[in-house]
Design a protein that fits this description.
binds fe (ii) ion; 191 residues; mainly alpha
Amino acid sequence: MLGLQCRSKEEWLDVVKENPERVLCDHAHCEKKAAIMAISLMNRYPDRRELVESMIELAQEELSHMQMVLNKIYERGYEFLRDPGDGYAQALHDMIRKQEPYRLLDTLLVSSLIEARSCERFQLLSESVEDEDLALFYRSLLESEAQHRTQFLKLARLYFPREEVDERFRELAAKEAEIVTNLSSIAMMHG
Ligand SMILES: [Fe+2]
Ligand SMILES: [Fe+2]
């Protein structure tokens, strides 16, 4: 699904269903970090017009997602907790090569994989969370994360040869699957 090489574990689903507050807080931070990543990309590559335009749009959309998640947190009387950190995203970012233009290619592909995993997880949540309001909420976000996944891939294919993109995507997707398989199933979006 979406170029991912493994499915999220059932245990993860069981844990997140029990901890809606922690998951929503972590989710809000994920949306915030997605917006920060979009801004950092346009800051790093101001000469890539398509990328800048695409990232302006994305940053705004991710911030509006963050607002939606925050509204859910407050409307339920939950507290917006501190960012617990995201070992999954960190492990993926550690695989980004330091040298250009590979840094750009890897950043786009890692971002695409993170969006794909979010999409897969929203799908699982929307199908299995018993709280109807939350299930609908996750369903409403699913499609835009799938679009973001494609948006990053399209940018990669715009700036790099198709073959190189596809080969590196498969390599990174294999590592992503390994990271996901080794996660300890905690109440986080990427737990
Ligand atoms: Fe988002
Ligand atoms: Fe996204």
